[in-house]
Amino acid sequence: MSNALSVDDAPQPPKVLSTPLEISSNLRQLLESHDPLIITFHERSQRFQSYLVDLDRDSNMIALDEMIPRDGERYLLAGEPFRVEGFHEGVRIAWECNGRLNIDESAGSRCYRGALPDEVVYHQRRNAFRAALKLAQLVNVNLDGEKIKASISGKLLDISATGCKLRFDGDITGSLQLGQVYDRFSADLPFGKMTAPVELRYLHFEEKISTTFAGVRFHNMSGLVQRQVERFVYQLQREARRFDKDDL
Question: Among 19, 48, 77, 145, which has the minimal tally of Cβ within 10 Å of its Cβ?
Answer without folding.
Answer: 19
